[in-house]
Design brief:
The chain is α/β, with parallel strands linked by helices. It has helices at residues 38-45, 49-54, 80-92, 106-111, 126-130, 183-197, 210-219, 229-237, 266-282, 284-291; strands at 27-28, 56-61, 70-71, 77-78, 95-100, 117-118, 144-158, 175-179, 203-207, 224-228, 245-261, 303-304.
């Protein structure tokens, strides 16, 4: 079965849904209680010695992307990713420590081994796997992924859609706001030459957080924000934002979220993939996705480097 075939449909996903590295942990889950079954014990034994000895998975995340990664009212990590990470840690007998950092610093931090992995709605693409730039030239060592969820990019506009944005082509001649380092920034940058050809330049505001992008749309300084469907949908439903924004057009370029690891950490990568498979088999994965109304984006099994 191909990686694409293993991913369930995303056409109806409806989840309630940056500077220097912060080296202090934002939050941890409690150490797992009780014993482990034979499978989890066997997987724990295959963990890299340093991780097993420390008893901690240090995970980088940009905790500013509700409902996937954010901070709750007590400033603790919350959302789809923290819940899945905690479940993986519990299964492997590890505590989970989140390190809050800007999104565009996550992959460099993984490559520098400042963290064990990143988990922050990072889309798995072959370009990120290979570490190539838009021209195909080697730009960095690349990373490995363990795919665990799938979504597409949505266009979010001011409520009432005053400019009539329904597609990427409609953005030509206007300003779009996006978070730097994201797939959405790449989509906007790929659209710019098409706008230039019709003499309607596209201005792209690259911002540190998606909240800043949303603020530009609310203020009318940008006509649209591009972000993952779960986050876009959340911002049309939440009490704070529901009357300010609406979705327009269909989902663009569906792709999987991936646990993001250094290419030298194949043992950790493979253990996490097998642990995720176990969470899927025992139903814990489904419970977490149901909690965040994210089940239509579920995968049937973990896939290593399945992005296109």
């Amino acid at each position: 079965m191909s990686p694409r075939a293993r991913v369930r449909s995303v056409r109806a996903v409806a989840v309630v849904g940056a500077g220097g590295l912060l080296l202090s942990g934002c939050g941890t889950n409690a150490a797992p209680a009780g014993g482990q079954d034979n499978t989890s014990a066997a997987l724990r034994a295959k963990l890299p010695h340093a991780v097993r000895a420390a008893g901690v998975l240090k995970i980088g995340s940009n905790l500013n992307y509700a409902p996937v990664d954010f901070k709750d009212q007590n400033s603790a990590p919350a959302g789809l990713d923290p819940d899945l990470a905690t479940a993986l840690g519990n299964y492997l007998g590890l505590r989970v420590q989140f390190v809050d950092m800007p999104f565009d610093k996550l992959i460099p931090a993984v490559q520098a081994k400042q963290i064990d992995l990143a988990m922050s709605a990072v889309i798995d693409t072959q370009q990120r796997q290979n570490g190539t730039d838009d021209s195909g030239q080697q730009a960095n060592p690349g990373v490995d992924f363990v795919d665990y969820f799938v979504t597409g990019t949505s266009i979010l506009v001011k409520n009432g859609n005053p400019v009539g944005i329904n597609s990427l082509d409609d953005l030509c001649g206007h300003t779009v706001a996006v978070q730097r380092g994201t797939i959405q920034a790449e989509i906007a940058q790929r659209q710019a030459p098409a706008c230039d050809r019709i003499s309607k330049p596209l201005r792209i505001d690259l911002l540190d957080t998606d909240d800043q992008a949303l603020s530009e749309v609310a203020a009318g300084t940008a006509v649209a924000d591009l972000n993952d469907y779960p986050i876009a949908a959340y911002n049309t439903r939440s009490a704070q934002a529901g009357t300010r924004f609406q979705l327009t057009g269909g989902q663009l370029e569906p792709g999987p979220y991936g646990l993001t690891l250094n290419k030298t950490e194949s043992a950790l990568r493979d253990v996490l993939a097998k642990a995720l498979d176990q969470l899927i088999l025992d139903g814990e994965y489904d419970k977490i996705l149901d909690k965040w109304n994210a089940h239509p984006g579920a995968v049937q099994s973990a896939v290593v480097n399945g992005g296109l």
